[in-house]
Q: What sequence folds into this?
């Protein structure tokens, strides 16, 4: 049997190659239960070992985009162009559709700090907070430019949350074909690996964002769903009707010295299928492969 795994400048034993091939088969089997498209990319950050399933295919990000947006915000904090305690005003035009709107405190003219908006965006996936931050950081083009400067290709940031919602309402069929605001699982996993390596932000802002992602309250049954209790996962979920049920993050392995960057994206999965459980099974298979 031919076994293969992508690696970067490291020797890999035949046994490791075969184990990786077994994992790839497990991922294919698990993904098939969801129907539709499922993309996975996982990197053992400290060694560079990389396993993927449709890792180079673009998927609509939904709210996973808020991780790159946060990186752009905190880049400006690192550069002294924004302050975390800086208070900014919310406009009526900033309001975007979503489950929560600034913790129920939205009203035109209300003031929030940059830190509060970041917390709303990462912890609660607040769309209005995201659009306010876009306004103060140069919009989607500036976020995408930051990714390119980091050497990340394969992530598109094209529209605000409000613009995305309007596009879906205008034509669901066209929306599902749109290549805007998409990412490949490989690109998102590479960005997460750079973040964990400390290559995207200064140490203090890296720790701040990592802590927020560990405390995120949205959809705990995805990446975290089947992992051992107490496993540390810093992640950002994304959900958009049939267009996306996603999760991307960093899983800390039991010894505390190794980390997995993983992104799982889905699109147009079968109605009634528990896609969150599919994501949880994928995360557990990857975790077991490298934890032991």
A:
């Amino acid at each position: 049997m031919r076994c293969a795994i992508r690696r970067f400048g490291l020797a890999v034993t035949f046994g490791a190659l075969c184990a990786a091939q077994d994992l790839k088969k497990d991922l294919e089997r698990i993904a098939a239960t969801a129907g539709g498209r499922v993309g996975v990319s996982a990197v053992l950050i400290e060694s560079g070992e990389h396993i993927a399933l449709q890792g180079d295919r673009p998927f609509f990000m939904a709210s996973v985009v808020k991780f790159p947006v946060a990186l752009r915000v905190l880049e400006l904090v690192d550069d002294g162009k924004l302050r975390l305690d800086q208070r900014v005003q919310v406009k009526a035009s900033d309001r975007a559709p979503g489950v929560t709107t600034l913790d129920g405190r939205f009203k035109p003219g209300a003031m929030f700090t940059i830190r509060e908006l970041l917390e709303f965006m990462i912890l609660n996936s607040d769309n209005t907070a995201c659009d306010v931050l876009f306004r103060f950081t140069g919009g989607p083009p500036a976020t995408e430019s930051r990714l390119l400067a980091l050497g990340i290709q394969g992530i598109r940031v094209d529209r605000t949350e409000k613009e995305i919602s309007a596009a879906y309402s205008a034509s669901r069929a066209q929306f599902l074909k749109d290549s805007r605001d998409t990412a490949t699982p490989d690109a998102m996993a590479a960005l997460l690996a750079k973040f964990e390596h400390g290559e995207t932000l200064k140490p203090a802002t890296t720790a701040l964002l990592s802590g927020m992602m560990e405390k995120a309250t949205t959809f705990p049954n995805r990446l975290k769903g089947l992992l051992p209790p107490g496993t540390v996962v810093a992640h950002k979920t994304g959900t958009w009707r049939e267009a996306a049920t996603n999760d991307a993050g960093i899983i800390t392995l039991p010894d505390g010295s190794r980390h997995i960057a993983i992104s799982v994206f889905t699109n147009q999965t079968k109605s009634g299928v528990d896609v969150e459980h599919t994501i949880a099974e994928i995360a557990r298979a990857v975790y077991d492969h490298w934890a032991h």
Observations:
- The chain has ten helices and nine strands.
- Residues 1-5 have pLDDT under 50 and may be disordered.
- The first helix runs from residue 14 to 32.
